[in-house]
Amino acid sequence: xxxxxxxVIAMFVTFIVCLFSGxxxxxxxxxxxxLFAGIGYLSDQYFDTITGLDYSTLGLSVDRIYGIxxxxxxxxxxxxxxxxxxLDKSGVAERMMQxxxxxxxxxxxxxxITVTLIGIILAASTGIIGASVVLLGIMxxxxxxxxxxxxxxxxxxxxxxxxxxxxxxxxxxxxxxxDQLGLSVGDLFMGAVFPGLLLGILYMVYILAYSxxxxxxxxxxxxxxxFSWSIVGKVFLNILPPAGLILAVLGSIFAGIATVTEASGxxxxxxxxxxFAYNRLNWQVWKExxxxxxxxxxxxxxxxIGATIFALVLRELGGDELIESxxxxxxxxxxxxxxxxxxxxxxxxxxxxxIEITLIILPLLAPVITGLDIEINGYGVVDNPxxxxxxxxxxxxxxxxxLTPPVGFALFYLKGVCPPDxxxxxxxxxxxxxxxxxxxxxxxxxxxxxxxTWLPSVAYGx
Length: 462
What we know:
The protein is mainly α and about 450 residues long. Helices cover about 75% and strands about 0% of the residues. It starts with a helix and ends with a helix.
């Protein structure tokens, strides 16, 4: 094994070990990159190796970081984050919860169905996982537990429904994926619609089946409000504002009227209008939303910078060629290699956040996918349909990273708003069935690529 290959493996091992030190991931990424640039330079000087690393290698990162900050697509990130946080404060979700609860009250498991439907709507209008999970937990958990719902069912429903925002557009993860892979964010947004809805439908089918076979786990309320068309009208009126915002944002992208960046601005303004219309907009809300937007954006871009330095040194060492050659030589065939990659991503999700996986691993895997003998029908319209399909497969896989311990952020978000008698073990028990449902959804998308490529082809074909 050559020195370059040894250093590549050592870089990954050092990064994984340092993750458990408690230091911020951005510092670890940049620090490990700088450390191994120095190790490579010293190795060339004293051991006659040819890594090619020196101080000028790190100098190249300046241009790359400037390119990140000069990227207009990434302007959509703070806009979508602002939109999600402002909608969280607008009171839209509370209104939907109250009206839908009355509508589905007579259905066994109706509260859990309501939470899932609101999770889908929030996903298509906010995309902020922490905000969605906390909001759904605060609104629904006291009601569900007060109605004697099974704790794991209630907790699993809230956690999984709140995580749909990372996949259903507008998703900040898909914006970053599009930037890293050189793909159209519009293609990724449209390609994610059916996989995202598929997961939501799988959740609801599971809840209905679970409630049917184990009715004591999801009892009906004692005082049910009788059905009336006024309840349906109230639900419609409460869904209309966020649906209008979704249509304005995604519709403008899908129709080709606005770019993703421009649509993100439309969404931010629309969220402000909704907060004002519901009399929730004040100086404190404005200050809190703006501060949290800056904080979240800074966190993401700090990882961008750290990952840029890490990836630069890794590529100089030939890490991308090593990974490509290793995966290409696996005796599994093209689809077997993709399944193996998704398994690795799934396992990495236990320990890494989706941002690190997207910024470090995904660009290294793109050449492997394009080199495989796979033809996905893009209907002559979708650019690079194989890579779009693969990106969405990774996105569905990364859904699980929010629910899998020990770094499942949704679990900790939810635990923070749970009643004192709810233990972390209850949450773990609750999310296991939904992780399995996510893997079933992944298998369906893997087997039927048209779920990803058909909608973009229809939009652009017309």
